[in-house]
Design brief:
The chain is 26% helix and 25% strand. It has 18 helices and 30 strands.
Length: 768
């Protein structure tokens, strides 16, 4: 991809790099977008799950006879009614199994309950009212078993087993250099233990969808999902050919990783296949909070050694993650945490031990940041602790140790693109100005910075790929087809921008069809900050091939050299004449030149990793950034107020600066929620957070305007040199807030969230 389009200068770009309003903007603002659960079909049924009310137990009896006899009930399904009740998949990262771990999960529990809220029965009825009554008539007798809810206790000898294979789900290690020698020789060594909490995705759109059987006998699911390829999993559950299942992903009202694993898909599919009627399912907010996989809570222990000038010498890191009751993506989340554990810094000697344990807590799985987020709290807290011990400026310590192109991460991967971490540090500090003054007595102000790096694109040993089709209509308008699910980040719109740029078409004349496993080329998951890299490059390759076809055809017809021709809106221009696009297309048809192209982009390849992590390349690339926060702390109430927030990231190239700024602002606010407010409380395996009235999320009153600073090195591996920006901004907030609070009160809080109670306890400990 080294042609003149990819290397165009910024002032030569017409559509890419412009802050354009997205095509879905007006309908979303007006509230007219039809999401997955908004579709109503004739003779539609409704489905709901009966869930376990205890976190651990043996199922002794299930009686659904009374529910089946209730007028209006069409069917009640148990695990025995499912052709393949145990889900097993072959594609790691797509659903609930990571293949090397041989993990699996039942669609409906038949003999054992492992977490509070686990599905046991599926009820299908002709109305929501009947559903509620029918579910209450399903009798389930469970013999309660011992509960293990702490991951450390789960790994202790003699702990109750969540699974017969044992409670250790995954383990990764990195060993590089001689850590013990470096610790012994260091001028300073700092240590710390840091804890993050269970967090819910809390998206606006609940898990929902509608299914039906079309005229060709194809089971069709229109669902809120980040992965249209779940049609394969549904086919396996029902024992159908994959070609007989179709998944459509309309605009998704928030995903953040929570709709990467299957939610409603298997249940709607089962109900439709059994009843042969359209079926709708939408989880309540209580169900979503109860049973959806959460962000992993982690305990991280760090020891960091440095020389007298602040140069890092070694890090010794232990990570323990709570995976909950089933595997889902925990092994891969833990792998990400392990690879990112030392941060964007050069550390010559490293020892990392990471483990994930099964517990009887709600399952944990994908969440924006995917393991690379939690460890930011660990490594950034260590950087500030080093700066304090050495009497150095925190920013200078970070800049002194910042990675540069050509450095190798502890896992062994070489950085092949530019690293502008020092520039992001300078950017936030230059914009911050002097620290604000307290607003009144008994209030103090603190300031801190936190840097991070986050991979984008899936693990290279997963052999990732994405495909897209681009074609001209007879009138010169353009169609793009790509299976990418658009989960609110402007994924579809950016593909239209790329195609319009390469092919010289006005953006208003481009239509993008997305998210349909039957009608669009498959593009993989909208996860791992991979879609701009993968689908963007696929569209770029298809558009580039199509562009070459058009220019070659015009060159043959006019006699002008190909290199002298330019595609511009509505025409191809050359030395001798300007050929309107309609005539160009006619020339192609007469010369049997295709006016459409399929592009397939294959991601970088690498060798599979083992438990002892080491690799020449683990991820395609990384995005670097730094955030700065000013906070005010009320010494009497412990309340923390964020006064100012600045976030700078090198995005390589901003395809749409508006979307980039939106992603940065949204990631920051979501990160601030975890830093200050949000926690899903689970006690002895019982989920005590039944609704959003107990799950506190930041509102406009809780956060200041986010100042997003977009740096552009042009060094990313995406189209036009773009880097992924969906996940990176969520990492620094969970570190910068406790560090800013520490600057204000003199004591760092090491467990999230930074609640008023924890602030007051920290202040009291300082006095003591």
């Amino acid at each position: 991809m080294n042609d003149e389009v990819r290397t165009s200068k910024l002032d030569e770009l017409r559509v890419v790099h412009r802050p354009l309003a997205r095509h879905d903007q007006a309908e979303k603002i007006a509230g007219t977008t039809r999401y997955a659960g908004d579709l109503v079909l004739p003779h539609m049924l409704h489905a709901r799950l009966v869930r376990a009310q205890v976190p651990s137990g043996r199922i002794l009896r299930r009686d659904v006879s009374a529910a089946r006899e209730l007028p209006g009930v069409v069917d009640v399904l148990l695990g025995e009614d499912i052709p393949n009740n145990e889900i097993r998949v072959d594609v790691p990262g797509q659903t609930i199994e990571v293949q090397p771990l041989r993990a699996s999960m039942q669609v409906l529990a038949t003999d054992r309950v492992r977490f509070h809220g686990e599905p046991i029965a599926l009820v299908v009825a002709d109305s929501e009212d009947v559903l509620a009554r029918a579910c209450s008539l399903v009798e389930v007798e469970i013999e309660e078993l011992p509960v293990v809810s702490d991951p450390a206790a789960a790994l202790a000898e003699g702990a109750p087993l969540v699974h017969e294979t044992g409670n250790l789900l995954a383990e990764w290690t990195i060993d590089r250099g001689d850590v013990d020698a470096a610790l012994a020789e260091a001028a300073v060594v700092v240590e710390g233990e840091y804890r993050t909490q269970f967090v819910d995705h809390a998206y606006l759109e609940p898990e929902a969808g509608v299914g039906w059987i079309d005229d060709d006998g194809v089971l069709t699911l229109r669902v809120a999902t980040q992965v249209v390829e779940h049609y394969r999993d549904v086919a396996r559950i029902l024992g159908l050919p994959e070609a007989k299942v179709r998944v459509i992903a309309p605009y998704v009202g928030g995903g953040f990783g929570g709709k990467e694993d299957m939610t409603v898909e298997p249940y709607i599919a089962l109900a439709v296949w059994r009843t042969r009627r359209p079926v709708r399912m939408q989880w309540t907010r209580n169900e979503s909070l109860l049973a959806r996989p959460k962000r992993h809570r982690m305990t991280m222990r760090y020891r960091t050694a440095a020389a007298a000038d602040g140069s890092l010498l070694a890090q010794d890191v232990e990570i323990l993650a709570d995976a909950g009751a089933y595997a889902y993506l925990s092994a891969l989340v833990l792998l990400y945490a392990t690879v990112h554990a030392c941060g964007p810094y050069r550390v010559p000697n490293v020892k990392i031990r990471s483990r994930a344990a099964y517990t009887n807590n709600p399952p944990a799985s994908a969440f924006r940041g995917f393991g690379g987020m939690q460890v930011v709290l660990g490594y950034e807290s260590q950087m500030d602790a080093l700066a304090r011990r050495l009497g150095m400026d925190p920013g200078e310590v970070r800049k002194r140790n910042a990675l540069v192109r050509g450095d190798r991460l502890p896992v062994g991967q070489e950085l092949i693109t530019e690293v502008q971490l020092p520039q992001t540090i300078d950017a936030v500090r230059e914009r911050a100005g002097p620290k604000p003054q307290p607003s009144g007595p008994r209030r103090v102000v603190g300031r801190a910075i936190a840097s991070n790096f986050q991979s984008y694109g899936r693990l290279v040993w997963l052999n990732d790929s994405a495909a897209a089709w681009v074609g001209f209509q007879a009138d010169g308008s353009l169609t793009v087809r790509c299976g990418v699910p658009d989960i609110g980040g402007g994924q579809a719109f950016s593909l239209g921008q790329i195609a319009a740029e390469v092919l010289g078409v006005e953006l208003e004349r481009v239509t993008v069809h997305f998210g349909d496993s039957a009608l669009t080329p498959l593009a993989g998951t909208t996860t791992a900050t991979r879609q701009l890299l993968m689908s963007g490059n696929a569209v770029y390759e298809a558009a580039t091939a199509l562009r070459a076809n058009l220019l070659a055809a015009v060159a043959a017809a006019t006699g002008d050299p190909v290199e002298s021709l330019t595609l511009e809106p509505g025409a191809v221009s050359g030395p001798t004449r300007r050929v309107p696009i309609e005539e160009v297309l006619a020339i192609c048809r007469r010369g049997n030149v295709p006016v459409e192209a399929l592009g397939t982009f294959f991601g970088p390849k690498g060798r599979p990793v083992t438990r002892e992590l080491a690799g020449e390349r683990i991820f395609p690339d990384f995005t670097f950034g730094t955030h700065l926060a000013d906070v005010e702390v009320d010494l009497d109430t412990g309340q923390v107020r964020v006064l100012r927030y600045i976030a700078a990231h090198d995005v390589g190239r901003a395809i749409n600066p508006k979307s980039v700024e939106g992603q940065i602002s949204g990631g920051v606010v979501q990160g601030l929620g975890q830093a200050l407010l949000e926690e899903l409380v689970v006690r002895d395996g019982v989920n005590l957070t039944p609704g959003l009235f107990r799950y506190l999320m930041p509102t406009a009153a809780d956060v200041p305007d986010i100042e997003a600073v977009v740096l552009e090195s042009g060094e990313g591996v995406g189209p036009f040199g773009a880097r992924g920006i969906g996940e990176p901004p969520i990492g620094p907030p969970i570190a910068v807030i406790p560090l800013a609070v520490a600057d204000a009160i003199g004591v760092q809080i090491t467990a999230l969230p930074v609640t008023p109670e924890r602030v007051l306890a920290a202040i009291a400990s300082r006095r003591g």
